[in-house]
Amino acid sequence: DRLAQSGERTLERLLASGAPMKPVIFTGAMRPWELRKTDATQNLTEALLAVQIVSPGVYVVMHNHVLQFPGVTKDLDTMTFVKKS
Domain of 48: which CATH number? Predict the structure, then answer.
């Protein structure tokens, strides 16, 4: 999944750069904005709240979950993101 790949790559590049870490949030929607029952509004709202309270790092925020990279993948059975154990 592109979002999971982007999160991993962003974390790698930030760590390699030696720059001070800030919170970086990835979010999106499993159902497009045009659909009546989209999850886009909820996910964007959650991301805006999360960026204010999480520690520095790279995260995906969707479906009431805040998951920190590395180790975040998309579960194709549940169509949500999970943290690999």
Answer: 3.40.50.1170
> What distance in Å separates the CA atoms of residue 50 and residue 34, rounded to the nearest whole number?
25
Selection from 21, 16, 20, 6 nearest residue 70 by Cα: 6
The CA distance from 83 to 76, in Å, is 13
Tokens 């904005």, located at residue: 33
Coil, helix or strand for 50? helix
Please answer whether residues 26 and 59 qualify as being in contact, where contact means their C-beta atoms are separated by less than 8 angstroms: yes
pTM over 0.85: yes
Give how many domains the chain has, as a whole number: 1
pLDDT tens per residue across span 28-53: 988 877 778 888 999 999 999 999 99
